[in-house]
Write a structure and sequence with these properties.
Blueprint (H helix, E strand, L loop, with lengths): L7 E9 L5 H11 L3 E12 L4 E6 L2 H12 L6 E4 L5 H14 L4 E3 L17 H8 L5 E2 L3 H8 L5 H9 L5 E4 L8 E8 L5 E6 L9 H14 L4 H17 L2 E3 L14 E3 L3
Parallel strand pairs: 1-2, 1-4, 4-5, 5-6
Antiparallel strand pairs: 2-3, 7-8, 8-9, 10-11
């Protein structure tokens, strides 16, 4: 790409009024990596440090108008997809991928919030697997999402094989939920050796939005013309450096689920 060209990334995700995940963190991430971010909001959420309190899915007509207003006007270099809310929105995304011949698509397979709220209607999961997986360039499930999608598997090779049987092109299996000393993610590409990316594990329970940050960073590097392997490597390091340099937010009224008061870890830019 030309040095004076700004890569463009469209994020299709839910709005997090707390600012730590979803569209908000996607925008921060893309701009921190010197890209330009556009957004299409799939749902409004009401959430804070404790969890998601309410969700209102964007009506399909409004969602479609958001998408077409961007795609009719701008050449988008990469797409990051996060929370999809329901089957109507998934169908709209599928239609637009085909209509506009979209490329460099990263799907963060968001199913349930950390507080246990469904971020995708359970009845729409099969539609996402059957129709969306084959159309995107990379999916980025964590270990809990892997088990929800393909059932329990003994190792990374079995996980990858199960995903490839679903016509998935590439999978980044995120190991943040494992018990390993290091946080290791595995990039599985059909017909190629699995590549692992490890970083020291940061001891914190405040991981809200890390999956969003990683997937939007990968999309930004793909928009720059980097290879998939390089995009994952650079994004993994970006996430680690930001988590390592995070700071605490002073809360006015904060109680955890156990009733204790504690500060929140925020990502710093």
């Amino acid at each position: 790409m030309q040095n004076n060209y700004t890569p463009t990334v469209l994020t299709i995700a839910g709005s997090d009024n707390y600012g730590g995940a979803g569209v908000q963190i996607d925008l921060k991430t893309v701009h921190a990596l010197d890209g330009y971010a556009f957004s299409t909001i799939t749902a409004l959420t009401a959430q804070n440090s404790i969890g998601v309190k309410a969700i209102f899915a964007t009506p399909k007509e409004i969602f479609q108008q958001q998408l077409s207003s961007i795609l009719d006007d701008i050449k988008v270099d990469a797409i990051k997809i996060g929370m999809l809310a329901n089957g109507e929105i998934i169908n709209s995304v599928i239609e637009n991928i085909d209509r506009y011949n979209l490329k460099n698509i990263v799907l963060d397979t968001v199913l349930v919030s950390s507080s246990g709220k469904n971020l995708l209607e359970p009845s729409a999961i099969e539609l996402m697997i059957r129709e969306l997986f084959p159309r995107v360039d990379l999916i980025t499930p964590n270990l809990l999402e892997v088990e929800r999608i393909i059932g329990k598997r003994e190792n990374i090779e079995e996980m990858a094989k199960a995903f490839f049987e679903l016509d998935t092109k590439n999978i980044l299996i995120k190991g943040g939920h494992s018990l390993e000393v290091e946080a290791t993610d595995y990039l599985c590409q059909n017909g190629l050796d699995t590549i692992s990316f490890s970083s020291p594990r940061i001891k914190t329970t405040h991981t809200h939005g890390t999956g969003c940050m990683l997937s939007s960073a990968i999309a930004t590097h793909l928009a720059r013309g980097e290879s998939l392997e390089t995009s994952v490597k650079l994004s993994k390091n970006f996430l680690y450096q930001n988590m390592k340099s995070s700071y605490f937010l002073k809360l006015r009224y904060k109680k955890t689920l156990s009733g204790r008061r504690e500060p929140i870890l925020l990502t710093q830019y």
